[in-house]
Amino acid sequence: MIRVTLPHHLRTLANAGGELQLEVKGQVTQRSVLDALEAAYPMLRGTIRDQSTGQRRPFLRFFACEEDLSHQSPDAPLPDAVASGAEPLIVIGAIAGG
């Protein structure tokens, strides 16, 4: 099982509390995790990545194992600790302002 942590506003939208657990088939990548997340929680489609382009939405970042994975290829394998369920994939809402 893959563990995913979402920011509060997305957990509220998904009506989910705390950490989510997902079963991911095949290689564990950002794309496969987000595909599984959107399949399990269809109300999240279009909120984390653009439905047309598949690009990460602005002001959202992906972290795992204390590493920013936001700019890695969506098809790059996630760290072994995430694939094994030892560490979560964390989706963080960025803060901006002036």
Key traits:
98 residues, alpha+beta, Ubiquitin-like (UB roll), 3 helices, 19% strand
Task: Describe the overall structure.
The chain is an alpha+beta fold and 98 residues long. The protein has one domain (2-93): Roll (Ubiquitin-like (UB roll)). The protein is built from 3 helices and 5 strands, in the order βαβαββαβ. The chain has helices at 8-14, 30-40, 80-83, and strands at 2-5, 20-22, 60-64, 67-68, 89-93. Strands 2-1-5-3-4 form a 5-stranded mixed β-sheet, with helices on one face. The longest helix is centred in the middle third of the chain and has 11 residues, at 30-40. It is globular and about 40 Å long. The mean pLDDT is 93.
Strands, total number:
5
Instruction: Indicate the mean pLDDT.
Output: 93
Q: Trace the largest sheet across and list its strands.
A: 2-1-5-3-4
List the secondary-structure elements in sequence, H or E.
EHEHEEHE
The CATH class turns out to be Alpha Beta
> Counting H and I runs of at least 4 residues, what is the number of helices?
3
CATH superfamily: Beta-grasp domain
What is the share of helical residues? 10-25%
What is the overall shape? globular
